[in-house]
Write a structure and sequence with these properties.
The protein has 424 residues and is an all-alpha fold. The protein is built from 18 helices and no strands. It has a single domain, classed as Growth Hormone, Chain: A. It is globular, with a radius of gyration of 21 Å. The relative contact order is 0.17.
Length: 424
Amino acid sequence: MTQYSKNNPWSWVPSLYFAEGLPYAMVMIVSVIMYKNLGFTNTDIALYTSWLYLPWVIKPLWSPVVDILRTKRFWIGTMQIFIGAGLAGVAFTIPTSDPLKYTMAFLWLMAFSSATHDIAADGFYMHALSSHDQAWMIGIRNTFYRFAILFGQGLLVMIAGKLEIWTGNVTTAWSVTFGLLGGLFIIFSIYHHWMLPLPKSDQPHPNPSLSETVRNFINVFISFFKKPKMGIVIIFILLYRFGEAQLVKIAPLFMLDSIEAGGLGLTTIELGFASGTIGTIMLTIGGIMGGFFAAKHGLKVWIIWMALAMKLPDIVYVFMAGTQPESYLLINIFIAIEQFGYGFGFTAYLLFMMMVSDGENKTAHYAICTGFMALGMMIPGMFSGALQESIGYYHFFIWVMVATIPGLILIKFLPIDSNFGKKE
């Protein structure tokens, strides 16, 4: 029987998932804003930054290695150091003559390190907590992960915007911002070395041979695809975020673009503030509420309501694109509505993947799930920029609403354990 850690999860779950979310935010979201400020087109930004999803897509290929070699704690600390090195590399290459080429190289390093960190952190979470505690803490975990996203696209973007004004130089501003963040990850590595618990089940396989490693690797994949109704499960994971995958690439570009170009004309500082204040508070409330309801009544009861809460608020972007409101307060209110729905609704998606992954190889199986999730974000994101530039922001956001429908329909056909997440 798995021996769960008795350490207080509040001492490590929030910080671990903040550290998991922040590099993802820098690679997939903040880089979009940075490249926009450096003068690249929406088509190029969406295409090249969407390719950075690839490490998250293919991470199941090396997830068994994380499961077999060393402990999850070891991988967590090591990858946090590599992420810090990648952030420092971006900081040094932004001022070069070809910033897209060189910064993308270090963003790739960050992406691979972050994807590996995700495997270890998610596996550690499931080893250290019981199924009830996983459901209870899922709202906290998701909230701090999303808080890291908002910290990146909020406070850090505001800092970069302030530095742009103070220095009068966009490249210097972004170099300093990435450099400061590199130092933060060294601190994370030291903190988690001391604060992560030591669950008895977080152990490497004893002296595995090459043939045993390969055999285990294959068996892990086979066992995943032998689970009940995996075809519909995989299609659901791929399509659930079909609309959001496009929205997340274009939303910040829409808010930064000029009124004449169909955007809202926000400054870098205004965008950072709008994303990182009221939006953060509402996301936190939504995430905690999602975890509370899932832990009390179980996933099966709440999944459809959480999905609707996540997807319906996307309509605020249709309204903003159609009216281009001048009121900064109104823009903040719309962002708050969307973030609350996201925090509440995304809980069900994560908990569903945990349910699917439960079993002997839960770390590797969860990594496979998140790999499919990343593929579902990567492909739509790649064409989102070109689509938006050809049909305009208003029609693009209408299309996003249409793209949320398949994921909702598929919920009816999912195999969901009615007791998963409920208190035992």
